[in-house]
Amino acid sequence: MLNSSSVVVESGTTTLGVAGAYTVAACSPNGTYTLVMKGTHWLAQADSTLVLMGAGDTSNFSLINGDVNNDNFVGFDDFDILSASFNLSSTDTGYEVGADLNGDDFVGFDDFDILSANFNTSGD
After folding, report:
1. 73-122 CATH pick, 1.10.1330.10, 3.40.50.150, 2.30.130.40, 3.40.30.10
2. What is the pLDDT of residues 13-59, one digit of tens each?
3. Which own/partner pairs from 22-29 qualify as long-range (CB within 8 Å, at least 24 positions apart)?
4. Scanning 1, 21, 65, 106, which has its CA 20 to 30 A from the CA of 37?
């Protein structure tokens, strides 16, 4: 979380549940913050209107997949990495876990479809 001066006041890691839900326990005092969420190969998304007033404060995100090299942009560099791992599974030499965009332990056409659908997109 960032404060009004864009200084990081709190950071952490969470795990997504089966339906994509998550919980983040905030320890910062009540106030207005920018909450930024970023997945391993998803683009960052920010919510600059998060107001902490106590237990039960919520914010919702829909992250965009396809950022293979984790630079917060889906572009040719991501395509190159995915291409180099194409048709490889998690047990093969050269397999790049970040290129497995659908998480099935295999880099194939489904991963290219995800990258293509979000090509030339950047995060917050």
Report:
1. 1.10.1330.10
2. 777 666 666 666 666 667 777 778 787 888 888 876 666 666 666 66
3. 26/1, 26/52, 26/57, 28/1, 28/3, 28/52
4. 106
